[in-house]
TrEMBL record:
Signal peptide range: none
Domain Proline dehydrogenase intervals: 43-294
Cofactors: FAD
Name of this chain's protein: proline dehydrogenase
Keyword Thylakoid listed: no
Enzyme Commission code: 1.5.5.2
Species for this entry: Ureibacillus aquaedulcis
Keyword Nucleotide-binding: yes
Database matches in SUPFAM superfamilies: FAD-linked oxidoreductase (SSF51730)
Key words, A-Z: FAD, Flavoprotein, Nucleotide-binding, Oxidoreductase, Proline metabolism
Recorded catalytic activity of this chain's protein: L-proline + a quinone = (S)-1-pyrroline-5-carboxylate + a quinol + H(+)
Amino acid sequence: MTLKDFFIYLSENRFLNSAAQKYGLRLGAQSVVAGVSIAETVESIKELNKHKISCTVDNLGEFVYEKSEAIEAKNKILEVIQAIHDEKLDAHISLKPSQLGLDIDYDFCKENLRDIVSLANQYNIFVNFDMEDYGRLDKSFELLNELNKEYDNIGTVIQAYFFESEENIERYKDFRLRIVKGAYKEPEDVAYQSKSDIDKNFIKLIEYHLLNGKFTSIATHDHNVINHVKDFVKRNNIPNDKFEFQMLYGFRKDMQYDLAKEGYNFCTYLPFGKDWYGYFMRRLAERPQNLSLVTKQVFNKKTNTVIGLAAASFVLGRLSKKDKVK
Ligand SMILES: Cc1cc2nc3c(=O)[nH]c(=O)nc-3n(C[C@H](O)[C@H](O)[C@H](O)COP(=O)(O)OP(=O)(O)OC[C@H]3O[C@@H](n4cnc5c(N)ncnc54)[C@H](O)[C@@H]3O)c2cc1C
């Protein structure tokens, strides 16, 4: 059992997710979540915009199995789009199809996405379809393809750990694409497992899209990749308006400001909302050093109980899986 497995398990734990909401456990998440309300989020965006940093705004949400929850999420995103327009913010939208009902009903999800993309289109605001785990990959691309017949203000994400991303980067070269390493735990028959294989493919995909694609968002906190890209664009005369760097809100803040100051387009991925728990746990899974974000207040009685219960159910879950194998 690795620490990564443990945090991924925590991120998927519905009990902890609702406990986090109910008891308002913040676990240090406030340093990586831009606000709970739209008003707070608008202030965070304005602050970044002052430093020539644009934002891609993500309404946090997990475990959407009821249509009413998906509609609620859609309405929140519509409100954000309206706020971006009204306040003239330098910002666009990132969304997860599962939050808009992909796991409930494909057509229902498509209608929700259409409402969002259509309003954003009226205001000339871009909408990014974030990519989730492998099980949702084909359907997410299908949604993108279908909506692209009507709208051109949409794009998506290519995850470097998937073998099939090499084909997808070619297939979607006419889209604005965000390229990432990949955040979920995926099986070895579909995804590279080693850091060096993922990093190698990441660079390959970035270079391909920079040379052949529409617009590239290089989303990483990895200084080696960033330095490589700086050098690559210089050698290949790729102008600054063809790409941007992206990082998550609250991570490597100094580097975010420095890149913007150096004249590169920079966009901060800005999560907001009450449903911060799964997002925060995935950040801890991919980089346990991020535990330093967890402040002392975590270790109070209430949080210890919840984390203790989680650890116990994690161990029990693994034991029962072993039993089944036997
Ligand atoms: C803007 C954005 C959007 C994303 N969207 C998606 C998505 O739609 N789908 C998806 O699957 N994944 C997404 N991800 C997550 C992504 O796939 C990776 O899981 C995540 O970014 C971690 O990989 P990394 O490239 O940042 O570098 P890592 O491989 O985590 O780190 C490489 C090296 O960089 C340095 N480093 C990294 N982080 C820090 C830090 N905080 N402080 C100091 N040094 C550090 C360390 O030296 C580390 O060894 C997104 C990531 C970003 C930044």
